[in-house]
Amino acid sequence: MSFILGLTGGIGSGKSAASQWFESQNIVVVDADIVAREIVMIGQPALAQIQQAFGDWVLLENGELNRRALREHIFADPSARKTLENITHPAIRSSIIQQLAKAQSDYVILVSPLLFESKQYQLTHRTLLIDASEELQIERASQRDGQNIEQIKSIIQAQMPRIEKQKLADDIVLNDGHLDHLYEKLKTLHQKYLALSKKQS
Q1: What is the mean pLDDT of residues 47-71?
Q2: For residue 135, what are the contacts with CB-CB under 8 A and spacing of at least 6?
Q3: Percent of the chain having pLDDT more than 90?
Q4: pTM, full prediction
């Protein structure tokens, strides 16, 4: 079993920039967001279960999941969110476990915005939080996604508070400036993770 690093961070924290840097060092990255999209593709058992639980309105005419309609529905109804999570979380977890097991690199990274909330950190040996102030998160996310500030604030509010993540993470990188600064900090950690993975094997 490879050494598995869990990588997380809130919206606009620089989590994607960090995971791309690790990929550039030939480290395999398993992205929970991508897995979450894969498990509800046409023909996947989870999509059929969602249709069964909510009705045909959750599908677009081409048979794909109507993400927007479902998102609005679960936003308005917390019990519907629970129903959806009961279907998707086990499928996501099982797919992540398979992909982590197949990964061929010195160590492997599980990137997940909900690493702590969804208990996915239990699949990892160590966790890294890419952290940024709320002001910076809002500024970056609004520039990147063109979302309005209220939407971004509500996403931040829905995520685990920074201070809680800081308590849970083994390593924290404060991404408060230029990418060069971020990469310098990641270089040091990369060496540390290589050493830990050698120890483990």
Answers
A1: 96
A2: none
A3: 77
A4: 0.90
Retrieve residue 136's tokens: 């910076």
Instruction: Please say whether the structural domain 1-27+107-201 has been given the CATH code 3.40.50.2300.
Output: no
Whole-number Å distance between alpha carbons of 134 and 154 = 12
Mean pLDDT, the chain, whole residue set: 93
Boundaries of CATH 3.40.50.300 in the chain?
1-27+107-201, 32-104
Top-level class of domain 32-104 = alpha beta
